[in-house]
Amino acid sequence: MSRTERRRARQAKATKGRKRGKGKPSRAPVKAAPVPVVKKTDYTAGSYPATTVLAAGDRHLVSRFSYGTTPELIAAVNAAGGALPWFEAQIADAGSTEDESLADWWPDLHLSAGEIHLRNQLRLRYDFKVMWDYSRRLLLRRGGTRLQVREVMTEFWENHFHVPVDRSFYLRVRRPYGDLMRANAFSSFRTLLPAAIGHPAMLIYLDNATSTKTHPNENLARELLELHTVGVGNFTEDDVKNAARLLTGWTVRTSSPYDAYLDQAQHHVGSVKILGFTHANRAGEGIAATAAFLDYLARHPATAQRVARKLATTFVSDTPSQALVDELARVYLANDTATVPVLRAMIASNEFKGAVGAKLRDTNQDLVATLRTLGVGFQRPAAVDDKSGANELNGAANLMGLGPQAWPAPNGVPQVSGAWASPGRTMASMKLHWLVATRSWPTLRVTHPTPASWMPAATMTFRDLVDHLARRLHGRASTTALLQAACLATGLTPTSTLTRNSSAANAAMPPLLAMFLDHPDHLHR
Amino acid sequence: MTLNSTAATIAPGGADCSCSEFLSVSRRGLLRSAALVGAVTTIGSSVVTMSTGGAFAAAPARSVVVVLSLRGAADGLSLVVPHGDPAYAAARPTIAVPRGSLLGADAYFGMHPAMAPLMPLWNAGKLAAVHATGLPAPNRSHFSAMEQLEDADPGSAERIGWLNRLLGQDTETSAVQGLAMGAMIPTSLQGAESSLSMMSLAEVGITGNDSSNKRLNSMALMWGNSPTAYGAGVRSAISASTDLKTAQALPNRSSTYPDSDLGRALADVARTLRADVGVTAVTVDSGDWDMHSDLGTVSAGWMARNATDLAGAIAAFFADLEGVADKVTLVTISEFGRRVQENGSRGLDHGWGNVMLVAGAGVKGGKYYAKWPGLTNSLDADLQVTTDYRSVLSEIVTSRMGASRAAVFPGFSPQTVGVMAGA
């Protein structure tokens, strides 16, 4: 093939990538000699209906708002009477405390900020190691909680108001910041915004804690406007400067309990104008003026657009229509910035229903979904920072490119597939899938399902086994193409007969499971 | 169509598996997959070979540009200090770099003392600094400025980076023409030309694939025809896992670099470039330059630490390149510079102009290049940009890569900087 032809093929490919989801892509004109057919194998998909699956629409909703379907989740959805009632029940359970004990294995996560700081100073255990515990438990909560929707929304808000878990200065106050996001997973933006911006972790991370009225530090003010609320293009440099002035004095006590407060001596006094917000901001009015400003921002139409677009990009598709964003923004403003009505409007939209499988899991989501879907069991570590599987979770996430909540910039992890589709990422996922499928990782204080446990019958044909596993791991019946991939991965044929615990079955299972994990149906949600 | 030495065979490997009709089902997908990464051929009736390391890949690059991004916006006024401008020291009572400590100083500029590892390159005329560079108008958003800087095509809504346009200019066809160190492909490399990203050279490969290629074959079936972004990533990964085997076989000299993410990344880049497999454009990120608070003193703290790491890693990189050193030009870039005046947190807020370091092949080094605008010591004063950053990059790509400036930087009329020989 000539270089020109190859380039054309590439461009056709690139164009398709952009048009994904908008009808059938055109075929690239690639010529090749016909390959003679020598022998026919029947790749008709097998059938193992005893392994139940959800209806396609239910699977779609559950897949978007969970970290992977499991038999338990399917049972819960069925018990609730379908995905929508399950979704509503999950919201109704928002205040549940049942997760307090879930993977509550790291005692340092119960320490106060003062205790963490003291132990850091005494080098008993560094504060960044406490954040390792935080990351480990976060991943286990995502994988293990019954309250999947709450955890998904916690991740969404914790990413929107991103404060990385791997920097210094504020780590002693970082765990409660995540708890705050979980407690407000279904609240309103008017509630979330002041809670996040006024939190010691945020005030320190974006340098407001050291901002003074003579030399305002613009970092938090700029990101408040650009990232957290109205978005780039909707404010001026003067707005940044005035917002920075208004936020001066909001700082964090430098001793226990390291809480946030307004230092009146460092607070700029005098009227401010930011976008359409004005306030006299006279002496003593700093707290009220800041609260009024944040409330103004929360209810700003540009904030509504930004939050609506981020929700739609996260849960519908990489390129939500402006019509959907407009509708969600309208619902957001009509409901006083409450989250739940927006979610309800989103999942009721045709655009949501039509976006099946359109979202790529990022590396953390792949890590959790892989362990959760396979049913890898974790036990409490035997000792702090030992090599238990639970203690290796954060390191595994790092090796795949990024730990949970460790994105190095205040904009949080990207929500679009393109960011998570680099060759390096695909290699990292292939490695993870192989290690878990072959039970090579994790190893200590974990339980992997045995090869025999993947066979629901003592003897079955390969095509039926593939159908069972497609139902169990992908939540849907198998296809011809999947059966072909399974044959390639294992060297078996559709009619190969496998006997539970035979050496042939045991040898086939790891590469077969890896194939299921490498498959688009696992990597997309 | 070229017949290549077999690198990876896209054919069912299992003896039991009836393969040929499988291929007839998916042949088009495999061919399209292969079209993205190398050559395609058929042998006999049933074998499709996706060449990933054959004649194309072996073609060495004529020149290589390494773009080192100082993410978070480095303070160029600390790295290359305009000591001759009286406003500099006045604006920075606690964080100014003292004139007496500067290295390689001329009457107006000098380098931060932590840049000492770079002095041999400087003295050898292999390193230059171009000051007061940046975007044509201020953009103080990290994220928007990075997009603008790396897209470098203000008239177009297409998201194609300038390095991707550069890759489209040459006749190289290696699957690893573009190489991004890190988990993601930056904007500069995004576009139709495929690039590889890697966390490290050691991580490149298809885990669990053995000589029977079962895993590779199933991956190719599942993703070879996929129009998704992930499909393209898989295809590049499969290709690169073969292309970079020669690089992986070379000695790893990371022990001669600073023990840092940047040091490890540049060690892997040097090793890859030594293998001479056609890598033409490389991006490397050095993060954590967003020093709003506690920038530190000349000898300790955030800036001193970062500058030490940066200088040490660049110096080790050029020492490590051996036979390919005469091909490689490195340039540093930041999304914007920082304010002239320090803030109340002993740090610096978002500004505009910055310095670019240019090192290696073709550089007319050992000197500072600047149309100096003069600094103002006021609360929100910037270093004004007098040289569009594209003027510097233009000289590199036209002099070293033989690329068309109009194609790489559409609609841009450069100023003459004179930092590159033959530009």
User: What string gives the helices and strands of chain B in order?
Assistant: EHEEHEHEHEHEHHEEHHHHEHEEEEHH
Average pLDDT reading of chain A: 92
What is the molecular shape of chain A?
A: globular
Query: Based on DSSP secondary structure assignment, what is the total number of beta strands of chain A?
Result: 8
CATH architecture of the largest domain in chain B: 3-Layer(aba) Sandwich
Give Rg of chain B in angstroms: 23 Å
Q: Sketch the major β-sheet of chain A.
A: 2 strands, antiparallel
SS-derived structural category of chain A: mainly alpha
Radius of gyration of chain A in whole Å, from Cα?
26 Å
Structural category of chain B: alpha/beta
Portion in beta strands of chain A: under 5%
Low-confidence stretches of chain B: 1-58
Number of strand elements of chain B: 14
The biggest beta sheet of chain B, please? 9 strands, mixed
Distance N to C terminus of chain B: 37 Å
User: Runs of chain A with pLDDT <50, length 5+?
Assistant: 1-32
Major protein interface: A-B, 91 and 95 residues
Helix content of chain B: 25-40%
Report on the structure:
The complex is a heterodimer of chains A (525) and B (423). Chain A has helices at residues 3-19, 56-64, 71-80, 83-92, 113-121, 127-144, 148-160, 174-183, 189-197, 200-205, 219-228, 237-247, 286-298, 301-315, 322-334, 339-348, 350-353, 363-374, 393-399, 423-437, 462-474, 480-490, 503-518, 520-523, and strands at 250-252, 260-262, 272-274, 277-279, 377-378, 446-447, 459-461, 497-499. Chain A has 24 helices and eight strands. Chain A has a domain at 188-337. Helix content of chain A is 50%, strand content 4%. In chain A, helix 14 crosses helix 15 (322-334) and helix 20 packs antiparallel against helix 23. A two-stranded antiparallel sheet of chain A has the order 1-2. With 525 residues, chain A is mainly alpha-helical. The model of chain B is unreliable at 1-58 (pLDDT under 50). In chain B, the strands form three sheets. In chain B, strands 4, 7, 8, 9, 10, 11, 12, 13 and 14 form a nine-stranded mixed β-sheet that branches. In chain B, a hairpin with a 3-residue loop joins strand 2 and strand 3. Chain B has helices at residues 20-37, 55-58, 76-79, 86-91, 119-123, 142-151, 162-167, 214-223, 229-243, 245-249, 261-275, 302-320, 389-401, 405-408; strands at residues 8-10, 40-43, 47-50, 64-70, 80-81, 110-111, 127-134, 178-181, 195-198, 281-286, 328-333, 354-360, 368-369, 387-388. Chain B folds into two domains: 8-55, no CATH class; 59-204 and 244-408, Alkaline Phosphatase, subunit A (3-Layer(aba) Sandwich). Chain B has 423 residues and is an alpha/beta fold. Chain B is built from 14 helices and 14 strands. Classes of the chains: A mainly alpha (525), B alpha/beta (423).
